[in-house]
């Protein structure tokens, strides 16, 4: 990875907030079952940046693939399975893979009228994605994301992102620091639930900070992801691997620190509390 | 000098069962805790049973009481901890000021008076002479009426109940022409109908009570002081009318 090849001053970090009603980040799915990984993939983020920069599908991706990626899970979301059927509107049987002598697809035999496909989505998820690279390239990408050349999508063309997508470019800060310093991006119900739990003394003990899962590109990482795009050309698609390190970040929530309150003694109503006790 | 007492009651003892079941018996036990009573003295009490296995008796007395007899008959005489607590009430009375907010709890007996009752119970067929020219006092028996009874009278007792913080309804979900009256920071936590007889009479005494809990904001400290010391509504001898204040939850000590 080129993380240590250039001095820190020439590098910058672009922060993207990937949030929307639906997201879908597939890494190895094919045919009728389309999975989603629980976090954005590198190919998805690189594709989004390439679309923003207006690069055609055949364009060279080496500079984008060389960027260092960090993902923070601000709100994990839930998995949605979309049960999806495909039929021919004329009532004809669906075509099969084989072709006849003229090169036209033959109908399935015995005839099959409906394809059942499963598409998986993440619903209500929020991710903070940081991309670190040469300052010049990252700044240009930050500009491009605010004025994208092609429509941007969260892993799938039907999954449109919500605003704000770009949280700006940070100069002179390493990727880990930029991810750890950015405030929590979760939506209001999640923040309220966090505050309630902390006040009730359940799992999160403090309201002003929250622990979030994160993963970084790291040559010494112990996980391998096969989601590095070699080319988005439809005829020459291919994926490489990268090493990933997983970690937890303690992140400011933007909520006030909770006062240490004790549970009330008797049913919440203690008249003696006002009598100098 | 006024004192507030809290006595813990052991619900498994025979004497406690009589006391818990019969407000008249508990009235007698409470009266027995105060040695010297001037004619105008008002003793207020309330039984808090929000923890059913640890009922607590709260008593407001004009003089310093002694609850040894209650502990011996209906408490845990040899147990650890404080059998009863007695505290001077003046720190609370001294901090009453316009605009201050407290949590409150009140068990009251909401009633209405009418000179022309409908229905045919024996009580209502009595003549005005038998009733000593008094109109008929009838209980409010639905929660809506009991709440309306309470909210109608709060300014008279020197406080107001602030409006409840509620979210604005989503478009199309609210009522078309306003909501009428806004919800208040008060709820009825308990409603009860108790019947008991007094010796020498065959007509049972019927008591319809409601326990109110919520937030109040003082609008007249003097009126509130009167309401605190002299009680609210009828049936004060039978555990109704004692208004207690506590710190608002979530505000620490609120002193």
From TrEMBL, chain A:
> What CDD domains is this protein classified in?
Cas5_I-E
Q: What GO molecular function annotations does the UniProt record carry, in alphabetical order? A: RNA binding
Q: Where is this region: Disordered?
A: 181-220
In the record, biological process GO terms are: defense response to virus; maintenance of CRISPR repeat elements
What keyword terms does UniProt attach to this protein?
Answer: Antiviral defense
Q: Where is the composition biased (Basic and acidic residues)?
A: 189-198, 205-220
What name goes with this protein? Putative CRISPR-associated protein
Q: Which organism is it from?
A: Kitasatospora setae (strain ATCC 33774 / DSM 43861 / JCM 3304 / KCC A-0304 / NBRC 14216 / KM-6054)
UniProtKB/TrEMBL annotation, chain B:
Q: Name one Pfam family in it.
A: CRISPR_assoc
Q: Where is this region: Disordered?
A: 162-182
Q: InterPro entries of this UniProt entry?
A: CRISPR-assoc_prot_Cse3
Instruction: Return the SUPFAM superfamilies for the record.
Output: CRISPR-associated protein (SSF117987)
**Name listed for the protein in its UniProt record:** Putative CRISPR-associated protein
Organism field: Kitasatospora setae (strain ATCC 33774 / DSM 43861 / JCM 3304 / KCC A-0304 / NBRC 14216 / KM-6054)
